Every structure is written in C-alpha cells, then in structure tokens.
Amino acid sequence: MKKYLRPTNGPEKRLRKALTETSTNVLLVILGIGTLIFVHELGHFLAAKWIGVKVHVFSLGFGPALLSKVWRETDYRISIIPLGGYVKLAGEHPEKDTPLEPWDFMAKPAHLRALVLLAGVGLNAVLAFLVFVLAFQFGVPFVTSEIGEVIHGWPAWEAGLKPGDEIVEIDGKCGPDFEDIFTTVALGSPMEGISLKVERGKEILNFIVSPKYDETQGIQRIGISPALSKEIGHILQYPDGSPAREAGLKVDDEIIAINGEAIDTGDKIREIEMKSPGKELTFTVLRKGKKLDVKVTPLITTRWMLGVSCASTKIQSLQKESPAAKTGLKKGDILLKVNGKEVTGWALLKAALESAVSEQPPGGKTLKITVKRGQEILSLDLPFEPGTLSGFLEGIVPVMGLRVDHVVEGFPAHELGIKPGDELLSLSGEGLKRWEDLLRIIATSEGKEMEIHWRRDGETFTAKFRPKKDEEGAVGRLGIRLKEKSVERQYGFIGACQMGTYKAIVMTQRIYLSLKALLTRRVSSETVGGIIMIAQATYESAKMGMGKLLYFIGILSLQLAILNVLPIPMLDGGHLMFLGIEKIKGSPLSERTMAFAQYVGMAFLLALLLYATRNDIMRLLATYQ
C-alpha cells in the first residue's frame, strides 16, 4: 500500500513559518521590555544591598504575584500586571513613633538614599550603552543622508540644496545619517548656521544653512526630508477608501515600473501618484522575487477654497545664486515698481514683469526694479535674457498676508465681489491674524456655510458663502507610505563602542527635544504613546533583525532612565526632589505632605497611562479601519 505524503512547501508550511516567526518576535518583545524593567529594579536592589538596607520584595510587575520565591530576607516575584516593577525596602515608609533599625532605608543619610534612587536610572543608562555597542556589531539600519524633498522657501532651499544631494558631513561629523542631521539642526545655532558638505554627482559642495524655528513642530528645521525607496512600508486607510489595499498591493512590495516606465526613485512614484487622480495606473512590483502587475487608481483628492491669493511683494525667502539674488535683492525687501510701473501685490508684480518684457525695445538689456529696503528706496537692474523672468520669480518666496492680490474666477471670493487690495478680517467668527489661519479654517470647513468680513477703503463688508472644491488642482492618493532609503551600519568592537557612545548622546539629545516640544505644547499630546505603541514598535524592530531590536531596546532604556529622573512624585526623580528639600530644611517632609504628593503623582501617572493607551487604540483603529 502506497503512502502519500503532503507536500512540505505548500500554504501550511508557509503558515507554520509565519506563526513561528511571529511567536519568536513576540517573545523577543517580552524579553526586551522585561529586561529593561529588571535592570532598573536591579539597580535599586544592588545599591540598597550595598549600603546595608534590607530588601523585602523584588518584583517584576505590579499586583498579585504569579510566581514567588523567598530567599534570605527577600521575596522575589513575577506579578500579574507587566507595566513596571518595584523593590520594597525595609523602613522606606516607617510608621510614626516606630524606632528605625540600622538596616532601614530611612535610617541612612540622604546622600546614600539618593544613591539607591539613582542606581536604577544609572544601570538603565549603562544598559543602553552596552546594548548600542552590541547592536552595531550585529548591524543597524539607518535612514540615509540623501535628500528627497527640499521645501520651497525654507533655509535649505535658500542655500541652494537640491533633491538627490547627499549630505556627507555636517558640522564636522562625517558620514551622518538622517537622525544625526535632524538632531544637529534642531540643536544648532541660527546665528552661526550649520555647515554642510554635500555630494552632488561627482562634486563636493559646501553650504552654510541657518535653521528656522518651526512653530508647528516646536523644533528648528532647515526644510528637507529623506529620500524614499521604492518599497512599500505601510498600506494606509483613508475615510474614503484605500486604493492600494483594494488593488492588492502589500507591504514590502517593490515598485519597479508604472505603466511600463521604469522607476528609479521613490520620489518619482510620489510624483506620478499626485499627478494621476482618478487615472488607472499599472504598477509592476517585485514580491518575494516575482514580478506582478497590479492595477490601481489613485483617489481624487481636492481641497476647499475661497479663491483668493494674498501674496505681497515683500520678500520672505530668497534663493542664493538665483537671478533675483544676483540682482541685489535681499530678504525683507519690498518691490515697489517695475520699469516705473507701481506694483502692490504678487499678481501685479508678475503682470508688470511680463508687460515690461514684452515692451522691451530691441537691444534693451535690463529692467528697472524699484525696491524699499528699510527706509531706503533703491533702483536695481535686472539683466534681461531669455528665461530670466521665470528664474527671477522662482528664486523668491513672498510674504503671505491678508491683503488680497488676486481673485480666482468661478470661486466664492469672485462671486462675493472681493477685489485685489481688500483686507480679510475674519472668517466664521474667528479673527484672522495670518494667512495660515485662513487656510486652516477653509481646509476644515467641509463645505459648510461660513461668514466672512473684509475691509475696503475703510468700509467693512460681510457676506455668507460656501467654500468650493478645487477640481482642477486635484491630486491623487494611493494609500501607500514608502520606506525611506536606508543603509546598514556594522562595526567591530572598537567601532561599535565609538558609535554606541555617539548614538547614546544623540538619542539623549532627541529625548530632550521631544520633551521640550511636548511640554511647550509645540507638539500635540496625541503623539504620546503607551505600552501598546512600545510593544508595536519593538515588534516591528524585531522583524528588522537583532541589530535593530537591540538598538530600539537601547533607546527605550535611555528613555526610561531620563523620564525616571523627572521631578514627579512616584518616580525616582520625585523622591530625589524630596531628598533635596530634606537636605535644605534639615528634616524630612511631613507624612501628610509626602502622602498628598504621592497621591498626586499616582493620579498623574495613571491619567497619563490611560491617555497614552487611548492614543494607542485610536491609532490602531485609524490604521485598520
């Protein structure tokens, strides 16, 4: 009788392999986070033992014990709630009128008690360094220093940086990755600027770029983003659908051609996506070594508009080496006239330049630009050559205000009778202070009826309207997020020690920047994540290899160390604060004060935990809806 065997390379084998990999990664997540907590509490435990304090309980987690073992005077536990851990020291909270024993925590001098409190964060910092060193021996992927996008009007654009440039040195640091660039720029001096060496083709170019403070992000930036790869990193879900998901595109697919045309960069994919709203595209992708053709149609994405432009003739940003800069113009200049013709807005400036070019007599080589610089009126010559006009305007970003310079036909502003020169005052009962206010209110209007107030020659006008969608300016959305270009860094022991030290410093700086932005409310509290987000990020790191997982564990260990020294009751930093007060006043705080502070600290941390968990759940729902 023949025995038939099931094939071992079919769906069942792939499923078993996927389940094994998932189980392994989940186990690595648990071990990684558990190690951080264990090391932190071990620091307290060892320091307490070293100064002669008895430890009653050493617990990983809170709540009832799942496993418990008493050895000598200590009960070692693994508890049911895996959100931290604790050590219970003898005499840490002595009862009133109870004499202290020599082995009690409160019987020790303040500086020794401070040592016990600092030992936890100290051991986490040491762990972070060691883990970074180990990670770099395995190899850690980092986002490359190649520039993908240069934001129009920002310092990098002004300096002349271009997409495709690769930053090979920043402030003397050779071979930076994008993490290094971000941190150096965020902490750099706007007055002295950031020195960059850039590789463009076969040339090495030098730039000095002055960072600009981004009010929305709460940090300094120069206006660049990293280059994108051709691989899909995430499939997104929009309220109106997800073309990529519906077409069958998957994470890790590499897009190699669109409509038969070979694709070289991820930025090219983005360009085609935006220019193809509602148009069916044929994507050729590589999936596990096999070529597939997938048809996908980008969603048509429009924006609500009032139909006005409020660009002035004052220069906000000026690109170096542009025709405008070579003319002698500077940031802050106000353009008043072109060949004697007065201009009061950007639209009139463009019209005047076009008119002056068309009226240029044969042999004429310059246009006269009248400029106000401070209190001085200057006359500058714009050399006229074919293409000069477009190059002149492209090198300038005007200041956007609330005085109308152009009205778009077919949109509400034109129908209401708003004219160039009018000043916009309020929208939907909200006073307008900046151009950005107008954009924000209109963008979130969802076409609802609004009331607008504007002024003309001292007279105020009021009218109601409904914003209209800009169908001609529609862009496409596929619902994909491409991976950023990355490079793996791997070193021997000495190199790993050097890079581990450097990255520990960089990550400490980044944590400081994040806390600063959050505390000054420059970054939304919606970005705060909890245990779910940590577990997700750790899991994703585990999928990228041991090096990436160890590096992420190192980051978490540093975060745990730094956050624990914040002066919040219930945290080590709160206890250190109480010790400082005790040292100054010569006696401990009263039990009532300490109890009140502990309750406040507990309430704060519990509220933060609940809020972070709520954010995590909302992110999950937004991703998988």
Topology summary:
Layout: H1 11-50, E1 55-71, E2 74-89, H2 110-138, E3 140-143, E4 147-150, H3 155-159, E5 166-170, E6 173-174, H4 178-187, E7 194-200, E8 203-209, E9 212-214, E10 219-221, E11 224-226, E12 228-235, H5 243-247, E13 254-258, E14 261-262, H6 266-274, E15 281-287, E16 290-296, E17 299-301, E18 304-305, E19 308-309, E20 311-318, H7 323-327, E21 334-338, E22 341-342, H8 346-358, E23 366-373, E24 376-383, H9 388-394, E25 396-400, E26 406-407, H10 412-416, E27 423-427, E28 430-431, H11 435-443, E29 450-456, E30 459-465, E31 468-469, E32 475-477, E33 480-484, E34 486-489, H12 493-519, H13 531-543, H14 546-564, H15 572-585, H16 591-624
Antiparallel strand pairs: 1-2, 3-34, 4-11, 5-6, 5-7, 7-8, 9-10, 12-33, 13-14, 13-15, 15-16, 17-32, 18-31, 19-26, 20-25, 21-22, 21-23, 23-24, 27-28, 27-29, 29-30
What do you see in this structure?
- With 625 residues, the protein is α+β, with helices and mostly antiparallel strands.
- Among the domains are: 82 residues, Roll (Pdz3 Domain), CATH 2.30.42.10; 162 residues, Pdz3 Domain (Roll), CATH 2.30.42.10.
- The strands form 13 sheets. Strands 6-5-7-8 form a 4-stranded antiparallel beta sheet. A 4-stranded antiparallel beta sheet has the order 14-13-15-16. Strands 22-21-23-24 form a 4-stranded antiparallel beta sheet.
- The radius of gyration is 31 Å and the shape is elongated.
- The two termini are 53 Å apart.
- The N terminus is likely disordered.
